[in-house]
Design brief:
The chain is α+β, with helices and mostly antiparallel strands. The chain has a single domain (4-110), classed as Alpha-Beta Plaits. The chain is 32% helix and 40% strand. It has helices at residues 19-31, 71-81, 99-110, and strands spanning 4-5, 9-16, 37-50, 53-67, 90-93, 96-97. It has a 4-stranded antiparallel sheet. The longest helix has 13 residues, at 19-31.
């Protein structure tokens, strides 16, 4: 296996109701150095149970690439700026990654200091 092991990086998934909300939150996270990169996957369909009913919604998925130390501030920002009562916020640790890419994430995170 190639690549570097990493226990310091996360990909955080968050769904948004529309493109404008997704872009607003993505820009906020990158401009504030909470995330190195936020990819927006458009026009996906989510099927879920909410308040006892099965719902379906067109959403945009944010894939937030960041350093684990930024998670608390990202969660706070998502709670504050997201229109959903209970936004999806799921963080997945990065087990392996291209060393240069992981270094770049670190450089974006450290630029806020």
């Amino acid at each position: 296996m190639t690549g570097t092991m990493s226990a310091d990086h996360l990909i955080i998934f968050c769904t948004c109701p529309d493109k404008d909300t997704a872009e607003k939150i993505a820009r906020l996270l990158v401009e504030s150095n909470k995330a190195a990169c936020v990819s927006i996957l458009p026009n996906m369909t989510s099927l879920y149970k909410w308040e006892g009913k099965i719902e379906s919604a067109k959403e945009h998925l944010l894939m937030i690439k960041t350093h684990k130390d930024c998670y608390p501030s990202i969660e706070t920002a998502l709670r504050h700026h997201h229109p959903y009562d209970v936004p999806e916020v799921i963080a997945v640790p990065v087990e392996y990654g291209l060393p240069e890419y992981l270094h770049w994430i670190n450089s974006c995170h450290s630029s806020k200091k």
